[in-house]
Amino acid sequence: MTQARRSSLLRRHAGFRWLWVSRAISYIGDGIALIAFVLHVQGSGGSGTAVAGLLLAAALPSLLGPVAGSIADRVDRRRLMLGCELGQGVVYLAIAVFLPDYAVLLALVAVANVLARCFAPAASSSVPSLVPGEELVGANAWLGTALNLQVAFGGLLGGLLVAGVGVRWALAIDAASFLLSALALAKVPALPPVRDGTPVVSFARTVRDGIGFVATHAVARAVVVTLFVGVAFAAVDNVALVFLTRDELGGGSVAFGVVASAFGFGMLAASLVLTRWERLVTARTAFLGGWFLTAAGTLATGLGPAVAAVATAQWLGGVGNGSANVGGDTLIQRTVPVAMRGRVFGLTSTAAFLGSGLAYAIGGVLVDLMSPRAVFVAASAGVLAASIAGVFLLPRQRDEHIEEG
Q: Which residues, other chains included, contact 143 with Cβ-Cβ below 8 Å and sequence gap of 6+?
C-alpha cells in the first residue's frame, strides 16, 4: 500500500469516516462537560468528596461493561449508537436547563454514562465491518486520535467556555455535540447483529457466555489481564502527579496543567503515527511495546529533576498508552468472532475501570506513606511486571483475521 493510500483511509471508507467524525465530536463534548461539572460542583461550595462523588458517578457505569457488550451483540449497532447519543443529548440538555441539586445531578450523570458505556462496545466492535482487516491498526489509531483530542483539548475548551459563557451554556454546547454526533452516525451503514449459528439464548446467558469466552480465549484473556494489572499501577499517576509537580518540584497550577496535558499529547502523537505507518507495526508489538513505554514513562516521571523533564516523561507515557490502546483493540477485532466482540470490548472497559478504581483507592494512601517520587518508581515496577506478563500471556502467532459475517 502506498503512502497516499495509507493517508486516505478516512476518504476511502465513508462509513468509518462518519463513525470517526461522530466520535471526535462526542469526545470533545465529553471533555467540555467534565470540566463544567467539576467547576460547577466545586464553585457551588462542594468539597473534595463532592467532586470525587461526581467522578465516581461518571465512572461506575463501566462496571456494566459485560451487559453493555451483550446488548451490542444482540441488536443493530448503528441504531444502538444513535439511541445512546440522542439519549445523552437529552440528559445533558436537561442538566443545562435545570442545573439540579447535587443528588439529582449525580443520578443524571450516571444515566448519561450508562448510555456512553453501551455506545463504546458497539463502536469498537463495528470497526471491522467498516474497514478491511489489514487496515484495522490504522483505523483504531484514527479512533485514538478522536479520544486523544478530548484528553488534549476538551478540558481546555471546557475551562474557556465556563469562564466565557457559564456552566449552563457549556453544558448546552455539550448537548448539541450529541445531536451533531447522531447526524454523523446516521450516515454509517446498518450494522445488524451477526449470528454464529448457535440458538438464541436468554440475555443473562449471553452475558455469562461472554465472560466464559474471555476466560478461555488466549488473546482476549491476555488483553484483559494485562490491561487490569497495568492500569492498576499506571493510574496511580493521576493521584501522585499533582503532589510531585507542586510539592516536590515547586511548580504552580500552570506547571501542573502543562505536565498533565503532556500525557494527552503523547497519546495523540502515538495515534497520529500509527495512522500513517500502521503496516510497520503489528498489533502485538503496538500493545506490548506500548505497555513497556508506559512503564518507562512512569519511571522517568518519578526520577525527573524538573518540570520540563517530568512533562517529557509524561509525554512518553502517553505515547505508550496510546499505542497500547490501538494494539489491544486491534488484537480483539482480529481474533474474536464477530458475534462475541461486543461482550469482549465490554469486559475490557470493565477491566480498565476496576484497575483505575484500585489505583485511586491505594494511590492516596501510598502518597501519604511514601514520597511522590517513590510512588512513581513503585508504580513503574508494577507496569513493567504487567508488560512482562503480557509477553508470556499473549500468543506469538500472527494476527488471525476473522471474516465479517
A: 19, 20, 23, 123, 124, 127, 329
Which whole-number Å values give the CA distances from 293 to 184, 230, 354, 387, in the listed order? 35, 12, 22, 9
Dump pLDDT digits (tens) for 146-173.
887 776 677 667 778 888 888 999 999 9
CA–CA dist 68, 207 (Å, integer):
9
Is 386 inside any structural domain? yes
Q: Name the pTM for this structure.
A: 0.79
Say how many domains are in the chain: 2
- Among 380, 383, 387, which Cα is nearest to 299's? 380
When pLDDT is cut at 50, 70 and 90, the band that residue 239 belongs to is: confident
Parent domain of 81: 1-189
Residue 405 forms part of a structural domain: no
DSSP for residue 131? S
pLDDT 10s digits, 85-125 = 999 999 999 999 999 999 999 999 999 999 999 999 999 99
The x, y and z cell numbers of residue 36, run together, are: 463544567
DSSP annotation of 400 reads P
We report the CATH number of the domain holding residue 356 as 1.20.1250.20
Task: Yes or no: say if 331 and 284 are a contact pair by the CB < 8 Å rule.
Answer: yes
180: which residues sit within 8 A by CB, 6+ positions away? 25
